[in-house]
Each structure stands twice: as C-alpha cells, then as structure tokens.
Amino acid sequence: MYVCLCKGVTCGAIRSAVQEQGAVHLRDLSRNLGVATQCGKCACAARQVLQDALDGSACCAGASEAAA
Ligand code: FES
Fold it and tell me: What is the pTM of this model?
C-alpha cells in the first residue's frame, strides 16, 4: 500500500527503512525516503506504519484507516 503518494513510498519501503537503515523517527523516513517532504498529508499514516514496524505488528495494520 502506498503511504506517501507524492514520493511513491509504500508500507514495505518504510518497513525496509526500519529494518535495514534503523529508522525510528518520521524524520528518518523523510531523510531516507522523502516521506512527508512535499504536501505532508502522509505524516500521520507514515508515523502509524513506522510504529507498527517498530512494534513488529502486521504490515499496514491500521495504516489504511489512518490514511482514509
Ligand atoms: S503524500 Fe507524502 S508528501 Fe504528499
């Protein structure tokens, strides 16, 4: 699922950033992937996906609700 439409960043890309690059904050995702650096509308959904990834929760659980 796309989390950031402006930069074409998916849930999987955010999870990879967490696992492979050690991202722990939204600013890490912004720096590494460009998340929330254009319109900013994805910030809440990106935070949710990031938190789910850090917690080890299932992919995109709740992210679609946050993005809606
Ligand atoms: S949707 Fe992510 S910056 Fe616009």
Answer: 0.84
